[in-house]
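Researcher: Next entry in the queue.
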Amino acid sequence: MSPARAQSYGLGFYSHEVVQDKRTGLDLALKNLSPKDKFEVSFDLSFLPNRVIYFGYILRLIGDDNQNVDLVYDNQANTRHFKIIVGERLSKISFNIDDKLLFEHWNNLKIQIDYKNDKISVVSGNQSLSETGIHLKASSNYKLLFGANAYKQFQTTDVPPFKLRDVRVLQNTEQIANWPLNEWDGSVANEIENKNNGSVNNPLWIKARHRNWQLEKEFTVPGDASLAFDAANEDVFVITADSLVTYSINKIPQLKSKAYSSGRQKLVPGDQALYANNKLYYLFMDQTAVGTFDFVTGKWDKGYTNIATNNGHLNKFFNKTDTAIYTIGGYGQLIYKDSVRRFSLNTKQWEKVKFKGDTFTPRYLAGLGANATGDTVYVIGGYGSASGQQIVNPRNLYDMVRYTVKDRSFKKLFNIDVKGEDFVFANSLVINSKDKSYYGLIFPQHKFNSSLQLIKGSLDRSAYEMVGDTIPFQFHDVSAYADLYYLPHSAKFLSVTLFKENDHTRVKVYSLLSPPEPIAINILSESHIGYLLWIVGGCVVGLGIWVVVINRRKKAALQTLPEPQKVVAEITPVNETQELVASETKEENESRLHANKNGIFLFGDLQLFTPDGNEITKYFTPLLKELFLVILMYSVKFDRGVSSEKLNEILWFDKSEKSARNNRSVNIAKLKSLLDKMGHCHLSKDTGYWKIEIDYNEIQVDYHNYLNIVSNKSKLNKQRIIQLTYITQRGNFLSNIEYEWLDVFKSEVSNEITDSYIQFANSIKVTDDPEFLIKLANDIFYFDPVNEEAMILKCKSLAHIGKHSLAKNTFENFNKEYKAIYGEAFERDFHSILE
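Model: Structure for this entry, 835 residues:
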């Protein structure tokens, strides 16, 4: 890991990767300057990595609205990319900044205006460039327009992807303005000399990206899955039963899948994989083998001969010195492991390492990190017992232990001090050998609805601190997995989580810029009791937000939903190819429900697939996406579409009528072109409303299928409930999309799904199908974690099949969540709900 980068603040500029309306602009103003004195504008500049287009205006300095001095970046130029423009012509001033400096460091630039000598100078690092005789017009009032702007005749939307901080203005060596740009959020750029604040459109505040994890990607794969990471190329590998899925972060983030030419692989929950020695390996611990994937042929050289496992949630690393893969610890068959195993890539043999030194307590759910060569590793925390037996006093562990490959020995370094809620670690630590520190993700393993929290600690002492905000995480033993990686080129952390449910695994990828910001000091108490306060505080804040959102959604629902009689009462029945029947096999169901052909999916990620299986979602700009969703929602739910006036109100409320009409016409044409690729789907205005006409016999629309099920609850049966579960397992409705007009739809979907599950559950007896009712209760908890009816249903069903301890655990976990949200204990006791 490279050293942490200091001073993590500034303003990032959205560029050509978003539509013009969403690009960033910073508007700063100066008034009553002496028009004859020279002055200087200075600022720190850096470029944002992994973008396609680097072109446009960095700064337009406008004097008295009659002369512009511009700093532009032109990546089409063969030599010098930075240029100064005065008025209508290019000046002789042009220069470069080395790419490594430009992308990885802050670079100070100074633009000096000298009216007396009719001279402009630019200072960049040790370069100083000047030009005279350019007929500068002395001015008293200035606009400093960084990035995109809509100011009079100087407006532009061409912006390179850059970040900016510490904008200062000096006149005759006296500082007269200073905009640090160190805000967390908002549209105000605070000026600290004279309160001469500026304004920002579409801000990307860098400081917030060092504190708030950002969901980079969310997707679902069939069956079990394992993770591996290539740090050099910044690729995350998701190994599935039938294909290798690769999410590439470097350059342009992209997701691609490659089917195995060697056929399906048997995978086991809790298994491990790793990328090392420029190859991808899958560890078959129970049959003492390692599978190697050939990226050229798409083949695995080995597969499972059986699917039993005795080694889950172990830790692993690669040692370059002896070209071997090592594993430490793990869990299986009610036994915690303390073994160290070694697989030589040269001999292709496993061996059990006889280690020495300090005692290593058997454990799993520990964090492990290695130095650059892999000859020294650090293992921290976990859950286990001294004897290794799960039945004999298992507990959370908090020791930091170092393992040295050369002498095959463990050495205990210290125990971290924990006085709050117990926690374990995600699988990997990120080690910074230079400053002897580590980063790890912790979470309370005794909760299903949990959270991951990044911590930074020392390799020499027990102190640690919490950095960054939290990541939602559902934990259920081998059904869940979390890992932490560091991206050296992008200078950010990556957290990847897996959660398997209903024979599919949900993958979520989050990122956080380095160095991560510590959480607010007032949240922490001495010796990290703050972990508990963080959990409780998060629940309290979450409750407050939940109350506000629910009230707002109820109000919006009353104001914006059509009258009940206007809603289409009779919905086309589910056709034969969409109906689940009892005779179908699980594989047939999977193939049908997840075929990526002729489909529009709104649950989870928004995805559109053409008849030949090509996904066209990537061609939708943010504006086109919102336009499409507005028309689609009103078309599918109300069967009438949406008026032009309503579209203007939602999408172009800030435009004049003429401008809104022009914008609408252009984007409607683009949308029609994209929908034509789908076939059996087109945009019309035959009734005076914009409507997307869809042939549901040819195109699968999950939202339409959902409406078929919930619209008539009197016809609910087990097959329809199973079908509803398959629809929702992709994720929450439009989970990564937030529009104010969409809130009422989202709220209704959650309520209708929960009501449907509960209504069907109440129609059957616990004695008839307790296993299905347990699954149904879990589905309800996915949408409403403190649903009383679901808790009672699950407890009664578990008790009926003799799993009384699990029933009691369900009740206790519910009670904890209930108390965290409502601030008081649930009013009933465990025995009363079973009566």
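Model: The chain has four domains: 11-209, 214-528, 529-557, 561-763.
Researcher: Noted, moving on.
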